[in-house]
Amino acid sequence: MYKSICFCGLSLLLAAGCDNPAYDSDPDKVTTDGVRRDVDRAVDSASALTQQAAADFRKKLDARAVELDAEIAKLRERGAEISEETKADWEVKMAAVEEKRKLLGNRLEEMGDSSADAWAEMQASTQKAWDDLEAAIRDASDDE
Fold first, then answer.
1. What does the pLDDT look like over 80-104, one tens digit per residue?
2. In sequence order, which residues have a C-beta less than 8 Å from that of residue 98 and are 6 or more positions away?
3. How many C-beta atoms lie closer than 10 Å to residue 93's C-beta?
4. Domain that holds residue 118
5. 111 CB contacts (<8 Å, ≥6 apart)?
6. d(Cα 132, Cα 124) in Å, to the nearest integer?
7. Residues 80, 82, 85, 88: is their CA dihedral positive or negative?
8. 5 contacts 13 by C-beta, under 8 angstroms
9. Which of 1-5, 15-19, 23-27, 28-32 has the highest mean predicted lDDT (pLDDT)?
């Protein structure tokens, strides 16, 4: 009888151990926990990539902003040499340059504060502000 009880107890322990979800003999089996883990890793990787792309874009724009500010300063210096007949038109164009430079500065500031989700939209609007400023500088340079 003692052997029967021990055998039954051992059988129950083995049966309970075989149903352990922590151990799975099939490594290719897809589990909810495995999917969650993989999704979390993918989201973390995508977020890190987006943050790196935003930082790279911002660094590029900051460097180019220094160059554009120097171009704007040269335009101001040359503005003193413009004839009176073209000066009024040039001043209108320089006012547009200043306005677009201010807008670009605002976009750069907003971009620094934006989340990873909003970054793509901010990148597009910042790039447009950038292109508009460059076009305004070219336009003002043409009058010299």
1. 888 888 888 888 999 999 999 999 8
2. 72
3. 20
4. 55-144
5. 54, 57, 58, 119, 122, 123, 126
6. 12
7. negative
8. no
9. 28-32
